Amino acid sequence: MKLTRKKTAVAGGVLSLVLAGTGLAGCSGGDGPDSAPAAAAPSASATAVQVSTGDTVSASGTVQSSRVRELAFTTGGVITKLNVKAGDKVAKGDLLGTVDSTVARENLSAAYTAYVAAQDDYEDVKSGKNLTASSEDDKDSDAPGANNGQGQGTQGSGNGSQGRTGAVQTTAEAYAALVKAKNAYTKAQREVAGTKVHAPFAGTITALSGTVDAEVQPGTTVFTLTDGAHLRISAEFSEADTSRLKKGQKATVVFDSLDEEVGGKIISVSPVPVSSSATAAAGPGGGFQASSTSVVRYQVLVSLNRTPAETRVGAPVTVEVKTG
In whole angstroms, what is the distance from residue 304 CA to residue 220 CA? Predict the structure, then answer.
């Protein structure tokens, strides 16, 4: 009988311990002031946050062309022809558009005539033709240029000569007039050439501003030409990540829309920030604090080992760089 009671007592004690443990577990989930929070098991997401990215840094970026040129007419006027539209592909040297060249060509013709006349005057003065002083007695006269020297003079001290304009000139004066006329003629040639815009390289017209019969001022951008054959990646890395990057490092470029990865190399890291953004910290009550943290970013340019098919300028990418 004693043995039986002893076993019963032991069993009862074990049961009491089990019930006590259950009661404690129930108390731990209560809302009372004396209840202690239960230790939470580490979750998979918490573990991922604590794991360091190690030797890899990454940033979002876009595809851009290494050559983009804004093109304008250097001579203003009314647009008479536009041979392209946005999206058209062009070859080097293609004529993109023209403005009215009537006035420019008239100025060119007048400048050419003046230039030819100045050439003839200079040759006449150099050769001594049409000398104002035609005899020895004339050397003592008060006529302009008659006493500018004896015999064939050098530039600046030669005999005076009657030019085609009727003015008496020295060799230096005739030469100065020739240079002035030549410069005017060259300027007129540039004005005629400025009535046309040619493609400086092969590419795609990515923007077009201007319409036929509209007047355009000199230097106003009308065409934007983008070289689609020479592409690169522009990405903005945080200041902390940029400190781990340098020119020549290998990179991996992930084309988000094409689901394709391409190798590349860093070709430049901007020494000055290109952008900054502010992030607000969460407050104790779930709101946001008044203070914020500014994140400074630097531009990093990456060359591509190859260009995937169907790649377009402006396409989003992700750049990953192993820094270890």
Answer: 33
